[in-house]
Design brief:
Strand content: under 5%
Distance between the termini: 53 Å
Mean pLDDT: 78
Order of helices and strands: HHHHHEEHHHHH
Largest sheet: 2 strands, antiparallel
Radius of gyration: 23 Å
Number of helices: 10
Helix content: over 70%
Length: 315
Amino acid sequence: MVPSDTILGIFFISQLCVGVIGNSSLFILYLYSYFFKPHFMKLIDSVFMHLTIVNMMFIIFSLIPDILASFGVSNLLDDIGCKAVLFMARVLRGMSICTTCVISTFQVITIIPSNSKWAWLKPKLSTWAFSSLLCSWLINLLIYAYIFEAVIAKTNSTHVGYGYLHAYCQNKYFGNSNSWIFLSVIFIHDLFFVAIMTWASCYKMTFLYRHHKRAQRLHSLSLSSQPSPESKATHHILFLVTCFVFIYWLNNSITLYGFYAQTKIPRLEGINAVLTTCYSTICPFLLMRNNKIISQFTSCFSVLRMTCFQSALCG
C-alpha cells in the first residue's frame, strides 16, 4: 500500500507541473504577441505577464520543499536557506494578491464612463498601474522582512504550543505568542487588497448587468436566445471572485488554526500548501478563457492545422 505522504507528494508534483506549465505557457504567448503582434497588446497585458511570473515563482518556492519533505528528505535547509525560501514564498504570495487587485482596479477604471468624476484616472493608467506594482513589491518586502528574525530551521525537539511549523522551518521562539502583531499586519494587508478586489469585481458585474439591460431595451428580446457577452463576462467575473475569496479564507483559516493549535498536525501544512497554490495554479487557465490574444493564437493554430490536414489529403 502506498504511504499517504507519497500520495501527497505525487499530488504536489502534479500541481507543480500543471501550475508551472500553465503560467509559463501563458507568459510565452504574451511574449510572442509582444514581439510579433504588438498591435494586439494592451497595457493591462503587461500586468498579466507580471502575474504569470509571480504565480509561477510562487508555486515553485511553495511546493518544492513540500515535495521533498513528503518523500522523506530531511534537514534539507539550514537557517539561511529556510529564511530565504519562506521569505520568497510569502512575498510572492502577497504579490499575487496585490497584482490581481491591480488588474481588477485597472479594469474598473477602463470601463468608467467619460462623464464620471473618476474619469480623470484613465489617462494616468500606465503610470498608476506600474507605480502600484512597485509599491506592492516594496510593501511586501518590508512586511515579510520580519521572517529573517522570526524563523529558523526546524529542530528535533518536541513542538507543542503556539508557533509556525513547516517541514523544514519553525518559529525561532516556538511557543511564544508575540507573533500576533506580525499576523495582524499580514491579515490587514491581505484584507485590504481582497476588499478592493471584491469591490472592483462587484462594480464590474453591476456595470455589465446595466449594459445588458440597456441593450435589451434597444433590441428585441427575441433576436437571440444565446447568452449575451455581458452575461458571460459577468458569470466569469463572479466565478473568479468566488474562487479566489473561498480559497483565500480557507487557506487563512487553516494557517491560523495551525499556528494556534497546541498539538501540530504535520499533514495539515501539506494540505494548506495545496490550497495556498491552488489559485495560482488554475489562474492561467481561467485567464485563457476570455483572452483575445489566446483566441487569436488558437484561431491561427486551427487554421494552420486545417491547412496541413488539407495538404496531407491532397498529397
